[in-house]
Amino acid sequence: MxxxxxxxxxxxxxxxxxxxxxxxxxxxxxxxxxxxxxRDHGFVLVVVTNQxxxxxxxxxxDDLIQVHQFMNSLLIKCGVKFEGIYYCPHDKNDYCDCRKxxxxxxxxxxxxxxxxxxxxxxxxxxxxxxxxxxxxGVKSVHISSADGDIGAELVFPTLIDFARHLHDLERSxxxxxx
Length: 178
Ligand SMILES: [Mg+2]
Ligand SMILES: [Zn+2]
What we know:
Blueprint: E1 2-3, H1 31-40, E2 46-50, H2 61-76, E3 84-88, H3 104-113, E4 121-124, H4 127-136, E5 139-143, E6 154-156, H5 159-171
Helix pairs in contact: 1-5
Bound molecules: magnesium ion and zinc ion.
The site of zinc ion has 5 residues, from loops.
């Protein structure tokens, strides 16, 4: 399970503002519960996040690492844990292969953690997340409470709605006939 960070795990700050320190990091409601459901259904949880505030000199890589340590500390209290946190520190015009919509972070995580792309999802709130999912060959999930189709395979208002959908899917599998 590949998850975008800002707007999915934590509250997104206004455009052009970056979460630079733990005090600016606020988990969204029910995120721990949603991640726990995903984990219980066998998904490896991985964050893939664009952080061009680093390339722009607004924050350092060390700031980002501290924010991620804080995120982990909040989640570990609820028994959930990201197996990987992948970030792209580059700017748009660096033309790297990691900045979403490029699939680099998803592909690297899949390789490092031996994740099967065919049974994976990329969950995000932006068109670049949906495109990255397609470029990596995983199912795309758009979390949005607004109207507006950006071409994702699945759309849910919140992360926990998607987690419940996964739960229902598994329960609805036909039982084998004996
Ligand atoms: Mg986002
Ligand atoms: Zn990059």
